[in-house]
Amino acid sequence: MPGPHLTLNFLAFSAIGLFALWGIVLTNGTLPALIEAVNDGFYPNGLRIHLRYTGIARVDHVLACLVAFFHIRVIAREGPPIMMVLEVAATLLVINLFILTESRRKDSRSCLKFPMIWACLNHVVGTAVVFPLFAMLYVGQGHRSGTRLINAAEAWALPVASIVTVPMLALLILPRLWFALSRRPHPSPEGQISILLFFLSPVVLVGTQTVLAAIIRNLSLPPSSSSSLTVTKSGTTAARCTQIAYLILGLLSATAHLVICYIARFIDNTKLSSVYLPHAHGPTILRGKQDIITKGALRFSQYDYIVTSVIIVILGLYVLLSERRLLAEAAKETSPASSNITTVMAASPYGSVCAFLATSAVLGPGTGLAFVAIRKEQFLVTLEKSHGQAGKGSSLAACSGSTVG
Question: What are the TM regions of this chain, as residue ranges (predicted)?
């Protein structure tokens, strides 16, 4: 089990994320300006805010604040705000899949078993605040958090759930497209409804996976035999399905990252630092200005992206280094006959570490997390095979003993 320093680091990053996201938007006037705009029903630049969603006044007020905070970035005339929204959203889809997958481990414990809550909090509070807490619990449990492949039915449902969530990213750009196609002088407030629908992506991801897994179990599609060969084959198939799900959203995150970088550099003539780094996009936020919410929301996204990227790097290194060794040691303790395979798995992982860091730097942190998750499934398949060989050896020994007797 890792030392307490790593879990404390995640807790510290969550506190940093809380201050960077909500503390700064509160002190620079962005949050008060947003609340005032929702109360008035208009942004500081005169655009109308959609205020009615459920018919319940207090619920609608909260939803209006949440949606307006994203909508103002999507319809901004300058490129960096919407680019940063799409970058963060694409990364968030991969993070939510990671949370869902780890919650489905057979031996998952404590709060990790509630993926819907974690994913929704990511959308509402901010990934920089919530994901470090999830990582802290994940790391704190050591190899107990995921020493087994997920159930075959659960795994088979993951690729479909991932595909269903892909169109959710397009909902963020619908208001801008409607505005461009309608040729209106101002964006339609009804376009803000699509932003609200994006916040339902955790419900779509977890709900689709849960329903499909239940259907598959009821149809008895996964192999039902308990022999070691069948279990190993089923586990390998489950791992491949999980890897496919990560590959789908990892490619989506990589595509979004590369397209954003290309548009910013060659079409919008915008420096990448203006997109990704706080305080690099224009002058300081000034109270009373019409763009105060837009610039404050951009800073929110930038800090969210930076802290989340750091957390993904730390968590990825943990999985590739520490967790890999923990899994190998656990396998040796429970099955000494599998020492050859686990020794191979515990070999130098620095090639994977370099590939992970390069992937994160070039294709974005979301793709880096998908890479780490795919590698973890390979670790677990190796363990599954080692246990299968150990079980086979035990069976042969038992048969030999009975023959001699």
Answer: 12-35, 56-76, 82-100, 112-135, 155-174, 195-216, 244-264, 303-321, 350-374
Residue 284 lies in a domain: yes
Query: Domain range holding 112?
Result: 4-311
SS3 at position 42: strand
Q: Is the pTM of this model over 0.90?
A: no
Residue 51 lies in a domain: yes
Given a contact cutoff of 8 angstroms between Cβ atoms, the answer to whether 168 and 93 are in contact is yes
- CA–CA distance, 388 with 375 (Å, rounded to integer): 20
Query: 216, 156 in Cβ contact below 8 A?
Result: yes
Which pLDDT tens digit goes with each residue over 228-258? 444 456 668 888 999 999 999 999 999 999 9
Are 30 and 297 within 8 A, CB to CB?
Answer: yes
* Residue 345 covered by a domain: no
CA distance 30 to 403: 80
Residue 372 in domain? no
Give the Cβ contact number of residue 11 at 10 Å: 16
Q: Are 368 and 94 in contact (CB under 8 A)?
A: no
